[in-house]
Amino acid sequence: MRRRGMPQILRQWAARALLASMLLGSALITAMSLPYFDFETLPPFVIEKLPLRFESLWLGALRIHVAAAALGFPLCLLLMTRASQRRANWHRWLGRLAAVLVLLALLPSGVVLAFDAKGGRIVTAGFLLSAAIVAGAMIVGVRAARRRDLILHARAMRYVVGQMSVAVVSRALIVGLDAASIDPSVAYVAALWAPVLASAVVVEWFSRRPNFGHPNRVQLVERIRRELSPLVLVVRVRAFFRPITGDGR
User: Fold this and answer.
1) Given a cut of 90, is residue 231 above it in pLDDT?
2) Model confidence pLDDT, tens digit, residues 122-171
3) Vertex 52: Cα angle to 48 and 57 (nearest 5)
4) pLDDT category of residue 5 using cuts at 50, 70 and 90
5) Cα–Cα distance, 8 to 215 (Å, whole number)
6) How far, in Å, CA of 221 to CA of 150, rounded?
7) For the range 176-184, what are the long-range contacts, defined as Cβ-Cβ under 8 Å and sequence gap of 24 or more?
8) Alpha-carbon distance 78 to 26, whole Å?
9) How far apart are CA 109 and CA 61, in angstroms?
10) How far apart are CA 166 and CA 174, in angstroms?
11) Can you state the angle between helices 166-179 and 184-208, rounded to 10 degrees?
């Protein structure tokens, strides 16, 4: 019994550690990005980009992207926790807010920024691929939630969070590669494409595991879906009020 429980405990602690590291990384990136909202002075990162063809558009997109990421990523991480998932109403409304932030603010602004990304077209392609995965997964996840297909919804949301985590992992890789004196042009490409592809592969691998997150996950989710079915509730209410006959059964 103890041997069976230990792997599950380790997975839970690993998930918590990953969640905490992503939250910390997101907070650090947000803190480092605060100078972007100083309308009086341009930060060095922006000065490096000058001259820009559409400077006002680019600066507006940068601020929208930073603000949307600062709110959207922690919100998506919160929605992945069991505490959130056990509170259906809160989970539903917070999920809608996250979807609006991602689809209407984070992704459009990110696409604008991608075309002036450091590293040239290959980095631009990486950003656009990541944005396409997030957009597709978010739409699939929202539609699955509306159909009460909780398994597909959870899988799609893991893709969203996986790609949003690229920002944190990529920053860490850039710091590490810079410390190793790797050519910046090579480091920037590797630091983007490696987490984009790795996160997609890892999410797909875990999603295909039958016991991911719970020893009877499929049965558990199907049971929850049945319990939430309005038809089942009506049948149970009618059965409760059905008069007892003859033999008392």
Assistant:
1) no
2) 999 999 999 999 999 999 999 999 999 999 999 999 999 999 999 999 99
3) 115
4) low
5) 9
6) 7
7) none
8) 13
9) 5
10) 12
11) 140
